[in-house]
Design brief:
The protein is of the alpha/beta class. It has 8 helices and 8 strands, in the order H-H-E-H-E-H-E-H-E-H-E-H-H-E-E-E. The longest helix is centred in the N-terminal third of the chain and has 18 residues. InterPro entries: SAM-dependent_MTases_sf, UbiG_MeTrfase.
């Protein structure tokens, strides 16, 4: 039995929201601080599409930011809603629709609030590169589970917590390779796959697939594979 959803306390870190709001105007510049998101997006998009067949599906992207994934899912034929708590990021996302010609319903609303408003309304829920930025990831996961229809799929991606992930995702990516702005990630908020799996099961979801994402700094190529030591993605299904 899952505890009732509550929106009495906003599950957001003001400092995290400010961090991404300050960079929002650069979201769609593929050579900006968001370059890694542009580079990994085709990988995660193809992975999601292969699992669910996005065309014709009703999808919500939780923590959509400037809309890189949301727009690309719309381009694959999905009916997409994108939600975020950064007004600036959503403003950039809405403006980019005029350039791309895609259709996405962007909303300034918390995942928990949307789950109360529209439970079991979506075929697919995506929550990518977000859980490591919220105070209570279990609350976000519970909201994702509530939003998806029985039998529907929820996709997560986040960062593992170990010495290798600290060296690669924080020291390497932020300080050595400068792939990301300093302070993008807080190591203590990283989530082990076992922890994510526990949250997922507690929310009424089944774990179907766990894959890793790696980056080769020499070739500058990202790839999906078995190595979940740093970045990883999890595909789950809500009990029917």
């Amino acid at each position: 039995m899952n505890p009732p959803l509550s929106v009495s306390a906003m599950n957001a870190d003001p400092a995290e929201l400010q961090k991404f709001s300050d960079l929002a105007h650069r979201w769609w510049d593929p050579e900006s601080e968001f370059k890694p998101l542009h580079r990994i997006n085709p990988l995660r998009l193809d992975w999601i599409d292969a699992a669910v067949g996005l065309n014709g599906k009703k999808v919500v992207d939780i923590g959509c930011g400037g809309g890189i994934l949301a727009e690309s899912m719309s381009a694959r034929g999905a009916q997409v809603t994108g939600v975020d708590l950064s007004e600036k990021a959503l403003g950039v996302a809405r403006l980019h629709l005029y350039e791309s010609g895609q259709t996405v319903d962007y909303r300034l609303i918390a995942a928990e609030a949307l789950a109360l408003e529209a439970p079991a309304s979506f075929d697919v829920v995506t929550c990518m590169e977000m859980l490591e930025h919220v105070p209570d990831p279990a609350s976000t996961i519970q909201a994702c589970a509530a939003l998806v229809k029985p039998g529907g799929q929820v996709f997560f991606s986040t960062l593992n917590r170990n010495l290798k992930s600290y060296l690669m995702a924080v020291v390497g990516a932020e300080y050595v390779l400068k792939l990301l702005p300093k302070g993008t990630h807080e190591y203590a908020k990283f989530i082990k796959p076992s922890e994510l799996a526990r949250h997922v099961r507690n929310a009424g979801l089944d774990v179907n697939e766990l894959i890793g994402m790696t980056y080769n700094p020499l070739s500058e190529i990202y790839a999906l594979g078995q190595d979940t030591d740093v970045n990883y993605l999890m595909r789950t299904t809500r009990h029917g």
